[in-house]
Structure formats: C-alpha cells, structure tokens
Design a protein that fits this description.
Elements (H helix, E strand, L loop, with lengths): L1 H8 L5 H8 L3 H29 L6 H12 L5 H11 L39 E11 L2 E10 L4 E8 L4 H15 L7 E4 L3 H4 L1 H9 L3 E4 L9 H13 L9 H17 L11 H16 L1
Helix pairs in contact: 1-2, 4-5
C-alpha cells in the first residue's frame, strides 16, 4: 500500500522524499513499478468483475466504486474503473423506455386529496407509503405486479403478483405490507395515482381498517408517484432473466428474488449508496445512540 500511495502522489512530491518518510527503499519502489503494478491491476480487474457480476451486470462506475469501498476499502477513481470496464467489455444494463400506465383513472369513484404534494424527502420510515401497478410479459401471458414502497429509503415493504390487475391485487400488496410493518402503519399516508383499483370501496375500506390516510396524485400529475415508476424501470432493466421466455411461476420467483436483492443488497443512490434496509437500520441505530 505504501508503494501504491507513492505512485499516486509522485507527480506532487519527490519519490526519494516519500520513500524516506514512509521507510521504504527507492529500489523497492521501482521494483514495484516494474513488476507489482500488473499484479495489482489483475486483482482490481477480478474485484471489479466480481462486483459487476454480483449486481446482475447492472452496476456502472459509480456503484462499483461504492461497492469496492464498502467491501474492500479500496478507493478508486471512476475514470480508472471505467477504463477497466471498457477494456474487459463490462457494459451495464441501461433503463429502457418508460412503461405504460396500467391503472384506469377514467371512473366516477371517490378521489382522495393529494396529501403528499411532491414531498419526497421523508424524515423517517413508516410515514408515507406509495403504491402502483406494472405489467410483465411471460411466455404464458401477462402478469401484473403491485408494490407498496416506504418512501423514506425506497424499500419495497409489500408486493403482490397476479394474472389480473383488479382491486384484489393492490389490496393483497397492502396486506403484505401490513404483515411486515403492522403497528407502524396507523396514521401513515398511502399515496397512489387515481386508478380505479385504489379508488375502489374495498381498497378504501382496507385503508380505513389499517387506520391509514389515503392520498392521490393530482389529475395528469405523474411526479408524485415517481418512486414507484423508478422502481419498475429498475426492476425491468435489472431482472437477470428475459421474462418473455419464462413461465409465470418462473417469473414470479425471479421477481421475488430480485425484490429481496433490491431491499438488502442493491446500492441505492438516493440513500447515499446504501441498500434500503441498511439505510433504515442506520437511522434507527443513530436514534438509539442519541436516546442512550
């Protein structure tokens, strides 16, 4: 590590001075330059490839830089990571086109006021949940995924998958979120678009039973539910399989597995490159320290 530090700073300080201050020989440093760099490069290439593979080939230079620091305490410039990725043919998957909305807002059901009003930065978990539906193609037909996301750290706390997108789908996703969050949900906001599934009597009754407050986006306003839209785009880009070639059961298993990965391992830029679960745990640990 001393030789690597000298190499990094050799354009600012004399090599002889740095060797003397760090207690190493100049001959040793130049031997490292001649023979050790290649060994170091091979190790870095292996670690970058490992991080790239573990991300289902989705991490770019920013997330790989964060992953290397978190796991190995290796600090690299993104430019160097980019050069290695380019040389090794490591190209991250990129988000495709936006996906069609699956909720029908052309109805006469009651509309809830917009309590969220684009307030995206929440102080702690269990204050605001957002929900939405998307579609996924399989070789046996379409599947529909409904999610409930805690807006604090963008954690998926409930989801349901079915071959329909009726009100029962969003109710099931909310009930699964309740199994996970339970006593923390009363008085929390649940925000969605104006889709008929969320405006239905049965869904509103479920929210009332859970003592939650309903909120809906303004007409034609897609920004309030951006967290869900972003998650869907990420999911469809980063799923490690081509769903259109799989059975519905295989796709359901793949989605379940991805959501676990997303919550517990995927580095999320919104959280300062912490996975959603870890971001929540950091908050609670800090609060416990303050309370102690």
């Amino acid at each position: 590590m001393k030789y690597a530090w000298i190499k990094k700073h050799c354009d600012r300080y004399p090599v002889s001075m740095m060797c003397r201050l760090l207690g190493v020989s100049r001959n040793g440093y130049y031997h490292y330059r001649a023979h050790g760099e290649r060994k170091e490069d091979l190790r870095l290439i292996a670690l970058i490839k490992s991080s790239f593979r573990s991300s289902n080939q989705t991490y770019g230079t920013r997330r790989i830089r964060e992953a290397l620091w978190r796991k190995y305490e290796i600090a690299l410039y993104r430019r160097r990571i980019g050069r290695i990725m380019q040389k090794e043919g490591l190209v991250a998957k990129r988000k495709g086109r936006k996906y069609i909305k699956t909720t029908d807002s052309n109805h006469n059901l009651p509309i809830a006021p917009n309590l969220l009003n684009q307030l995206f930065e929440i102080a702690k978990p269990n204050q605001v949940y957002v929900g939405d539906i998307t579609y996924i193609k399989t070789k046996e037909g379409w599947l529909y995924l409904a999610v409930v996301i805690d807006l604090y750290a963008r954690m998926v706390v409930g989801h349901a998958i079915a071959d329909h997108m009726q009100k029962e789908l969003v109710i099931e996703a909310l009930k699964r979120a309740h199994v996970r969050r339970g006593k923390f949900m009363p008085k929390a906001i649940f925000h969605s678009d104006r889709g008929s599934q969320y405006a239905s009597h049965d869904f509103r009754k479920t929210l009332k039973t859970l003592r939650m407050r309903q909120s809906m986006s303004g007409k034609g306003n897609c920004y309030d539910n951006a967290a869900c839209e972003t998650f869907f785009a990420t999911l469809k880009t980063e799923l490690p399989v081509q769903t259109k070639h799989l059975t519905q059961k295989e796709v359901i298993d793949a989605i379940d597995s991805y959501i676990t990965f997303y919550n517990t391992k995927r580095l999320h830029s919104y959280n300062g490159y912490l996975p959603p679960l870890e971001a929540e745990m950091v908050l609670w640990r800090n609060r416990l320290k303050v309370a102690a």
